[in-house]
Design goal:
Strand order of the largest sheet of chain B: 2-9-8-4-6
Largest sheet of chain A: 10 strands, mixed
Strand content of chain B: 35-45%
Radius of gyration of chain B: 32 Å
Distance between the termini of chain A: 48 Å
Low-confidence stretches of chain B: 127-143
Radius of gyration of chain A: 35 Å
Oligomer: heterodimer
Largest interface: A-B, 91 and 70 residues
Shape of chain A: rod-shaped
Number of helices of chain A: 1
Low-confidence stretches of chain A: none
Number of strands of chain A: 20
Number of domains of chain B: 1
CATH topology of chain B: Immunoglobulin-like
Order of helices and strands of chain A: HEEEEEEEEEEEEEEEEEEEE
CATH class of chain B: Mainly Beta
Structural class of chain B: alpha+beta
Number of strands of chain B: 9
Mean pLDDT of chain B: 81
Shape of chain B: elongated
Chain lengths: ~300, ~170
């Protein structure tokens, strides 16, 4: 609207000035001498005037391809655009993430001045969820820069994890046994998403015997911790317990060394005197699987 | 006893603390939660439940158990209706849990889950549009107009000069 008003005013002013000059000339009030006039029109910088995309979340354990579509206009025509100079960045300064692609594809010309491009930017599963600045840049053949960083891409929150094994086993024990570690721990949790999980909450349940009604290995006989010993947190039947020091941060699992992983160690500290000799399991009748809840 | 590996449980939410969603008073909306199982990890059975419905404003639409095939995805749906008397800026926090139904293996079988917050902010007035793509004016158009106007002035000046020259010769 402001541009249109400026245009109208310009037209009126120019026409008015020209008219006055012609009038004054005819009345011989002004007498022009010949002079040289040179007009030079500068090179127009490209303008990135449209940026479009769809918000998506992480691809668990892999790469999410974010398709960015954008239009670039150049007053000197599309042939002045340098296709090889295109660059699209996804930037999150808060989490120190900068992913980019410099090989955008020329999809086609919209008209003589405007060209449409596609660019795929890869975001990893361990890039933190949140808002990313979409920075699109391109240069023309005179090296003039066109840029647009007004749009925000939402890298949606994807919570993803794997645990293994998904059941724990113990060797045969007696009522005199103490501090018996599970024979297939640690339980390893892998964070394969873009969301840190800061709390590990474990709800234990008594293990019923396979034969004797009312026979249990009690949840309170177990300890669970992040260190390979029997000094972890003591479980309680049907009660959530936050595992001390437990968390599942995001990270590149390929690095290894515990990145984006948590290890949990399970121990039977002892069983009650008089516990009948038989098989005990959460899978027996009346048993309940333990709930391992990760919390954001 | 042979112990299998657990498959990956993955859920994507459009709203989070860092990617906020807005709703107006009286507005009703259904949100999708994308449940995924990684390729090669096997099928998983996922249970969807509401831990805190924020005063009864949220409810599950459709089923609450989903069989997600390996490498596939399905949508769980949550309906939210913001009360009419909600004030601008109020934060509504629905708490959800997604649980992977256990395979019942071992002496202690584990049922993994995660609990997440689903925050919504009440906003009155104009609807919030995400990813708005404002189009700027093309400057080339205005440059062209300017050139035409300059050209017009030059013609006027030239005509005056020619007229004056003719007058001087005469």
């Amino acid at each position: 609207m402001a541009n249109k008003v400026a245009l109208y005013i310009s037209v009126i002013v120019v026409l008015g000035v020209s008219g006055v000059l012609i009038l004054l000339s005819n009345l011989e009030i002004v007498n022009f001498s010949p002079f040289n006039v040179s007009v030079s029109v500068g090179n127009s910088a490209p303008v990135v005037d449209f940026v479009g995309f769809t918000n998506i979340g992480a691809n668990p354990g892999g790469i999410a391809n974010v398709l960015i579509n954008f239009n670039v206009s150049d007053g000197n025509g599309v042939n002045d655009l340098n296709n090889t100079s295109t660059k699209v960045e996804l930037i999150n300064t808060g989490f120190g993430v900068n992913r980019f692609n410099t090989t955008c594809i020329n999809v086609g010309d919209i008209d003589g001045d405007t060209r449409n491009y596609n660019c795929e930017v890869e975001l990893w599963y361990f890039d933190h969820y949140g808002q990313y600045i979409v920075n699109v840049t391109i240069r023309d053949n005179a090296n003039n820069l066109g840029a647009n960083s007004t749009e925000l891409f939402n890298y949606q929150q994807t919570t993803s994890f794997t645990i293994y094994p998904n059941g724990l086993i113990w060797p045969a024990i007696t009522t005199t046994s103490v501090n018996i570690n599970s024979s297939n721990d640690p339980l390893i949790g892998n964070n394969s998403g873009n969301t840190p999980l800061s709390v590990v909450n474990l709800t234990g349940y008594d293990l019923p015997g396979a034969i004797t009604a009312g026979a249990f290995i009690y949840a309170g006989n177990f300890s669970v911790g992040v260190v390979d010993n029997c000094a972890g947190d003591i479980m309680q039947n049907d009660t959530g317990k936050i595992i001390s020091g437990g968390s599942l941060n995001i990270g590149n699992l390929s690095i290894g060394g515990g990145t984006a992983q948590e290890e949990l160690y399970f121990c039977i500290k002892a069983i009650n005197t008089g516990t009948p000799s038989e098989s005990y399991s959460t899978t027996n009748a009346g048993g309940t699987s333990w709930k391992l809840d990760f919390q954001i | 006893m042979l112990m299998g590996n657990a498959a990956a449980l993955a859920v994507t939410s459009v709203c989070s603390d860092l990617t906020p969603c807005f709703m107006a008073p009286s507005e009703e909306k259904i949100y999708d939660f994308l449940l995924q199982s990684s390729p090669g990890d096997g099928n998983i059975l996922v249970r969807f439940e509401i831990i805190d419905d924020a005063g009864g404003i949220a409810g599950i639409v459709g089923g609450n158990e989903f069989n997600v095939a390996s490498g596939e995805s399905v949508n769980a749906k949550l309906k939210v209706k913001i009360p009419e008397n909600s004030n601008e800026g109020n934060m509504v926090n629905v708490v959800l849990r997604f649980t992977q139904v256990p395979n019942n293996e071992g002496q202690v079988s584990l049922s993994p889950s995660f609990t997440m917050h689903f925050p919504l902010t009440v906003k009155t007035g104009e609807a919030v549009s995400q990813n708005a793509n404002p189009k700027g004016a093309n400057p080339f158009f205005w440059i062209l107009i300017a050139v035409v106007l300059v050209f017009f002035v030059l013609i006027a000046i030239t005509s005056i000069v020619i007229k004056n020259k003719k007058k001087n010769i005469a």
